[in-house]
From TrEMBL:
Organism lineage: Eukaryota, Fungi, Dikarya, Basidiomycota, Agaricomycotina
Keywords (A to Z) from UniProt: Signal
PROSITE patterns given in the database record: GLYCOSYL_HYDROL_F1_2
Biological-process GO terms, alphabetical: carbohydrate metabolic process
Highest taxon of source: Eukaryota
Organism: Tetrapyrgos nigripes
Protein name: Beta-glucosidase
Keyword Signal assigned: yes
The keyword Disulfide bond is assigned to this record: no
């Protein structure tokens, strides 16, 4: 049977990579000579570390062990056996936490970006509007994408450690073994963003650092717990609120090998146990929690390359995304139930992604219906059960038989409904939606043999009249991303109307500056004008959303604090507001970082 298309068009990070030319290699990035900031001696804290050119090449290709073929051996040698599945790992150049150079001195601001007849400084954008008191000026990262130190301090392997080594999985053949080494450089990173006036950092905890073997009956890695305790403490001492996601897609490899990860119901208890451990360790020091990052994207990936792993009994490639969704939402609800029973101080939700969409052709009822399908499959799949009904959207149950999408019991519905304290959305883009070319009815009646089934809708990145793009395109490494700021207000209204809450966080927005990964001169890299435009436009639209549309948005987080390992794109596509030299690990503020700082200084309530 053809690969289930449930979340098709959504395999953003992985699919995109498959079509790319892989001629940009990690070696070519790591091999560039060290670049120095023109003003680094006076303004940028420098880290003098020399990192050897990358020597690890992706030699993978071994098939993932069949479910149950690895015995549960929670000893150090059992852990090594799990690492053997991954293969050799690159060691970091140092293994202790670096003490930052403080105070951080910011560089002088960049020259104005706009001509004098525009609002030419960030502070001049909607100068009369302020964000509400308590609004979070946030930056976002995720453990796998920035930490590096992948085999240090007792961490177990995760599925990204494995997947990144599969042939052609990552366009530049890079791994995240080192990336930014934020695991040992978090103080430097926090100090640098605190100097910008950032008030929150949305970070994730790596499950395999806390439970190297993943399961509830396996040992806790105290070093991992202590590490994040210090990370959290340092954030708070620096005035940067730590916001924690429990699962940003870095699945402990052990759980995939033992029982098929999220394709098995066994994951629920193990996740809840992990969540409880982390809640009780950091209770009172973290106020805002997320159980899962973008569960839809995660579940769409479990069945496809490079995660073409073995599944739990009874699950196959076609049903895996839905089985994953079913187990994941129960794991979310279980963790929230525990959070409330344990009286953990704070708030909790999960991070949705994507958008509702706008009908492509105004007078075509099929396009309006396609928007409903898009909203249901992309956001409603998790948001309807949690915020509205306790159950899957009707569009899903009308389309997918129970052997694809398991149905909830009465008790499960009860547990799921209301299991979030606010709404969180990664609001990168919002686009037009059309019915599939073959027509909505044809797609639905063709069923699984139709490549567009079960979603039966298409994304359109240009208008239907004159083919004007929805917005300026990001780097070719992120072909899914355009600057669609002009749709942001209507997107936020739609979200608030369909999944009402008293509080919304925009948990990720961000832009991959075109060509940035190919540039070598620091002064060109720092001039990330498209990213700056994107961020300023989105933040301005959010101000209008709050003041004109009365949408209760209480925080905005920019992806990403630093350049990061961008899934299938590896290190070749950059999202950071700070440049990271992957040879020296030196960080440099880009224009966007400086303008963000000025923007928030002018628009936050004191
Ligand atoms: C959202 C994901 O949460 C993050 O992991 C990813 O790197 C960014 N989007 C950019 O693609």
């Amino acid at each position: 049977m053809a690969l289930s298309a449930v979340f098709l068009g959504l395999l953003l990070y992985v699919q995109v990579s498959l079509g790319q030319n892989s001629s940009t290699t990690l070696t070519s990035i790591a091999g560039t000579s060290s670049v120095q900031a023109a003003n680094s001696s006076t303004t940028t804290p420098t880290i003098t570390i020399s990192v050897p050119s990358s020597t690890i090449t992706n030699t993978g290709g071994a098939s993932f062990p069949p479910v149950g073929s690895i015995t549960r051996d929670f000893s150090p040698s059992g852990l090594e056996k799990l690492w053997d599945v991954v293969g050799p790992v690159e060691s970091p150049p140092f293994t202790t936490t670096v003490v930052p150079h403080t105070p951080v001195v910011l560089p002088s601001p960049p020259p104005t970006l706009y001509p004098s007849f525009y609002a030419n400084r960030p502070k001049d954008i909607l100068p009369h509007l302020k964000y509400p008191k308590g609004f979070l000026f946030g930056l976002a990262t995720a453990a796998y994408q920035v930490e590096g130190a992948t085999k240090n301090e007792g961490k177990g392997p995760n599925m990204w450690d494995w997947a990144s080594r599969q042939p052609n999985a990552i366009v530049d053949n890079s791994t995240a073994d080192i990336t930014d080494l934020q695991y040992f450089l978090y103080k430097e990173d926090v100090a640098r963003v605190a100097a910008l006036g950032v008030t929150a950092h949305s970070l994730s905890i790596s499950w395999a650092r806390i439970f190297p073997f993943g399961t509830a009956d396996s040992p806790v890695n105290q070093e991992g717990l202590d590490h994040y305790a210090d990370v959290i403490k340092y954030h708070r001492e620096s005035g940067v609120e730590p916001i924690v996601t429990l699962f940003h897609w870095d699945m402990p490899l052990a759980l995939q090998a033992y029982y098929g990860g999220f394709t098995s119901g066994q994951i629920v208890d193990d996740f809840v146990n992990y969540a409880k451990t982390v809640f009780s360790a950091y209770n009172g020091t973290v106020k805002t929690w997320f159980t899962f990052n973008e569960p839809r994207v995660f579940c769409s990936q479990v069945a496809s390359y490079p995660f073409n792993i073995t599944y739990a009994p009874g699950v196959n490639t076609s049903t895996a995304p839905y089985q994953c969704s079913y187990n994941l939402i129960k794991a979310h609800a279980g963790a929230v139930k525990a959070f409330r029973e344990m009286n953990i101080v704070g708030e909790i939700a999960f991070k949705s992604d994507d958008f509702v969409g706008t009908p492509w052709r105004k007078n075509t009822t099929d396009d309006a219906a396609a928007v409903e399908r898009h909203a249901a499959f992309q956001i409603g799949v998790f948001a309807d059960p949690v915020y509205v009904s306790g159950d899957w959207p009707k569009i899903l149950t009308d389309t997918l038989p129970p052997d694809y999408l398991p149905r909830f019991t009465k008790q499960e519905k009860k547990d799921i409904l209301g299991s979030a304290d606010f709404f969180a959305i990664d609001a990168y883009r919002s686009q037009y939606i059309s019915a599939p070319a073959e027509g909505l009815d044809a797609c639905l009646s063709n069923g699984p043999s139709d490549p567009e089934w079960p979603q039966c809708n298409d994304i359109q990145e240009f208008d239907s009249n004159a083919m004007w793009a929805v917005g300026a395109s990001a780097d070719t490494g992120a072909p899914w991303l355009q600057d669609t700021s002009r749709f942001l207000r209507s997107a936020m209204k739609q979200i608030h109307k369909r999944w009402p809450t008293n509080k919304i966080y925009v948990t990720e927005i961000g832009f991959a500056q075109p060509l940035e990964g190919q540039r070598t001169e620091l002064y060109r890299i720092k001039e990330d004008t498209d990213r700056t435009n994107y961020i300023m436009s989105y933040l301005g639209e959010l101000l209008l959303s709050i003041h004109e549309d009365k949408i209760p948005i209480m925080g905005a987080f920019i992806w990403s604090m630093v350049d990061n390992a961008e899934w299938g794109q590896g290190l070749s596509t950059r999202f950071g507001i700070q440049y990271v030299n992957y040879t020296s690990l030196e960080r440099t503020y880009k224009r966007s970082a400086m303008e963000l700082s000025e923007f928030f200084e002018a628009h936050l309530h004191n």
